[in-house]
Every structure is written in C-alpha cells, then in structure tokens.
Amino acid sequence: MLCLEEFIYALTFIFEIGSVTSLIFLSISFYIAERIKKLFPGGNIVKKWQIMQVLIIIFMAIQVVGLINIFLENQDLTYIISGILNLSTGIFIVILFNLNYKTYKLILHKSQNQ
C-alpha cells in the first residue's frame, strides 16, 4: 500500500507529465491558429484568432509557472495559478465557439457566392 508521501510524489509526477504534454498540444494549437489566420487575410476573423493565440500563450505561461511551482512548493502561487487558469479557460471556450461559428458562417457565405 502506498504511503501518503509516495502518493503525493506520484501525483506530482503525473502533473509534470500532464503539463509538458499540455505545452506540446498548446504549441500545436498555436500553429494551427496561425494557419487559419492565413486562410482569411485581413478582416475581423484574423483579429479574433490573434486573441486566441494570446490566450494560448497565457495557458503556456501558466503551465510553465506551474512546473516551476512544483519545486517552489508555494501554495499561494498554486491558488493564483488555478484562478487564472479557470478564468482564462472560460474566456477561451466562449471565444473559441463563437469564433468557430463565425468562421463557419464566413466559409458558407463565400461558398454560396461562388
């Protein structure tokens, strides 16, 4: 049976792997957003995809700070990271769904005009 210290160490290790994996997925997402922006040169859609990229960078920064905080073991910083992550995730999801809808509408509109 695992003692509490071993259990916490295992959770910390899982968190580290999750954070690194998240950084990889966020980097891929940033690249995809860059490719989408090139499909729509100019216009409001590009500005909104830039906002998405800024939020992705914020997520990446939070992941890096979280990894550093494992070694610092600062509980207050953990609370701040959690709050920022929850708030920015909510904003990200709302913007993402709205942006997907507008992008899809734009594609439909352009395809109907051809």
Descriptive report:
With 114 residues, the chain is an all-alpha fold. The protein has 3 helices and no strands. The chain has helices at residues 4-39, 44-72, 75-113. Helix 1 runs antiparallel to helix 2 (44-72) and helix 2 packs antiparallel against helix 3 (75-113). The radius of gyration is 19 Å and the shape is elongated. The mean pLDDT is 82.
Give a brief description:
By secondary structure, the chain is an all-alpha fold.
Question: What is the residue-mean pLDDT, rounded to a whole number?
Answer: 82
Q: Structural class from helices and strands?
A: mainly alpha
Strand content: under 5%
Approximate shape: elongated
Largest sheet data? none
Specify the helix fraction band.
over 70%
Number of strands: 0
Instruction: Extract low-pLDDT stretches.
Output: none
The SSE string, one letter per element, is HHH
Tally of contiguous helical segments: 3
- Ends distance: 67 Å
Global Rg? 19 Å
List keywords for this structure.
elongated, 3 helices, 114 residues, mainly alpha
Layout of SSEs?
Blueprint: H1 4-39, H2 44-72, H3 75-113
Helix pairs in contact: 1-2, 2-3
